[in-house]
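As practice, study what follows.
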Amino acid sequence: MRDAATPGEGNKPAKTTTGPYRDAPQRIWISEPLPGWQPGHNQLARLTRAPKHHLADPALAAALTGMTVDRLLSGGEPGVRIARDGTYLGALFESLVALSVRVFAQAVDARVFHLRTRASEHEVDLIVEAPDGGVLALEVKLSQSVTDADCRHLRWLRDRIGGDLRDAAVITTGKDAYRRADGIAVVPAALLGP
């Protein structure tokens, strides 16, 4: 929000200024914070605690901004981008996947987080933690295909937490689910379920 309020390299408003604007949608259930993951028993350090905010209903955001299917698929209006998260459609897709994963996780008493190191060297979009401490790591990509670069943070996490990582997957817009040679699953969002 602070970045969007200040184009370019201008002075960003103070967090105390933008805080109420961030909190208002949360109070009326339009925005839902996804807490930073803070595992208690493994080798991960220097993780950010700051929440990542997702829209409670991405379809509402699309409707309120007058986005048509054609505008969404073409990237919105020329030059309009969400600075940190890529295209508007990409941000809506990530929020839709986060919403779905949270609903499915709640059904099995699991909790959902995000992971980001303080210097942002590594980031995993969704961490689902089971009551017994097992972890499912999910990366969300607005793409039909997955590259090695799309999986680098999942492989990094697997190397750090070992057996605590039950599985890792990239959620895509593709049609087919499969498992890559490195063991990471590729799952279309349309196939997500409890």
Q: What stands out?
A: Residues 2-191 form a domain with the Trna Endonuclease; Chain: A, domain 1 fold (CATH 3.40.1350.10).
